């Protein structure tokens, strides 16, 4: 490893990510490669906090890896590995459990939301989820963590845990900082006052592997309004379409349609066609790459990533155990 600071992030293997996940976090994972020592993990132990079928989970792990490689995560530049292959994550999680106040975990809004959604399965893992996340980050002494906005509270808790450890045992961990990209709020196409989400149905989101005609169909069905008002009062649905043009790097179309909007001559059907083409331009190479990566390729890449991650993780956990006194 060289002088660059370390950056860590994780993704739960829950199926094919949508363009909101991509623009909100994953695109940054790609763009930040080279500037940092990037370590990326598919966090399968986080995924089992929600009841999930074994075969489904296996499939999701491969799908998630396939997507990451297809959007441009480069195993020669970054470490990519499966969380459960490095048991030091759960080991450090236990040590952190013994430093984390219950009251801090009780404040976590993601826990409260998930507990409401899964009333029959409010398990200890779901409650402890943020502590495992803190272990993921601090095991590699990561200073930067690119995440979506919804994870900021968990990063704050990670800092609290790091501080508690450092105060009790002496300097061990850097204080990680979140990196949040510009595309914070990609809204649902069918429900544009809510964030894009698989929970809001098929027509809410565009998955990274939706075929071109499906992308087109979903964009065309996106909620707009009956016509332009003034630009400060744009409806949520139309604003979302404009935002997406910018997030997908088509600034010239943004300007052209914005002018038409202001003049009141805009046709939403044309805006939508342009946006669908723009999205497909980004998704085309992703879809092609994804179809060319075999499960065997993925296995090899994740194993070689685990070998690199293991070296860092083992060295760090040994230091930590020396400090805590759990060794002979
Ligand atoms: N909790 C994160 C999410 O739901 C995933 C995650 C697990 C993560 N461990 C992490 C993100 C460590 C950043 C760093 O999106």
- CATH level 3 topology of the largest domain: Rossmann fold
Structural domains: how many? 2
Helical stretch tally: 13
Whole-number mean pLDDT: 96
Number of strands: 5
Q: Biggest sheet, strands in spatial order?
A: 1-2-3
Fraction of residues in H or I helices: 55-70%
Bin the strand percentage: 5-15%
Largest sheet: 3 strands, parallel
Question: Could you say which overall geometry the principal axes of the C-alpha atoms support?
Answer: globular
Output the CATH homologous superfamily of the largest domain. Answer: HUPs
H/E element sequence: EHEHHEHHHHEHEHHHHH
C-alpha Rg (nearest Å): 21 Å
Account of the protein in words:
- Helix content is about 55%, strand content about 5%.
- The chain has about 325 residues and is mostly helical.
- The longest helix has 30 residues, at about 295-325.
- It is globular and about 75 Å long.
- Bound molecules: tryptophan.
- Tryptophan binds near residues 10, 12, 43, 136 and 154.
């Amino acid at each position: 490893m060289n002088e660059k600071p370390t950056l860590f992030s994780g993704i739960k293997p829950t199926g094919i990510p949508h363009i909101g996940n991509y623009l909100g976090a994953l695109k940054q994972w790609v763009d930040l490669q080279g500037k940092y020592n990037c370590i990326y993990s598919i966090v399968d132990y986080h995924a089992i906090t929600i009841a999930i079928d074994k075969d489904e989970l296996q499939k999701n792990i491969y799908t998630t890896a396939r997507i990451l490689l297809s959007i441009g995560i480069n195993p020669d530049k970054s470490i990519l590995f499966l969380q459960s292959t490095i048991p030091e994550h759960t080991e450090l999680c236990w040590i952190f459990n013994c430093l984390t106040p219950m009251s801090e975990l009780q404040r976590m809004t993601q826990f409260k939301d998930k507990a409401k959604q899964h009333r029959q399965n409010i398990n200890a893992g779901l409650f402890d989820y943020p502590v495992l996340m803190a272990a993921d980050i601090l095991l590699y002494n990561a200073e930067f963590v690119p995440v979506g906005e919804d994870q900021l509270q968990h990063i704050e808790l990670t800092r609290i845990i790091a501080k508690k450890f450092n105060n009790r045992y002496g300097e061990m961990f850097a204080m990680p900082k979140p990196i949040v990209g510009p595309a914070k709020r990609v809204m649902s196409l069918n429900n544009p006052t809510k964030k894009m989400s698989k929970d809001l149905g098929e027509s809410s989101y565009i998955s990274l592997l939706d075929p071109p005609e499906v992308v087109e169909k979903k964009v065309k069905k996106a909620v707009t309004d009956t016509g332009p008002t003034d630009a400060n009062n744009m409806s949520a649905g139309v604003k979302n379409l404009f935002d997406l043009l910018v997030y997908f790097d088509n600034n010239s179309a943004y300007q052209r349609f914005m002018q038409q909007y202001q003049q009141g001559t805009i046709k939403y059907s044309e805006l939508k066609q342009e946006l669908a083409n723009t999205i497909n331009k980004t998704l085309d190479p992703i879809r092609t790459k994804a179809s060319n990566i075999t499960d065997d390729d993925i296995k090899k890449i994740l194993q070689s990533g685990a070998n690199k991650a293991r070296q860092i993780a083992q060295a760090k956990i040994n230091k930590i155990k020396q400090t805590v006194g759990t060794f002979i």
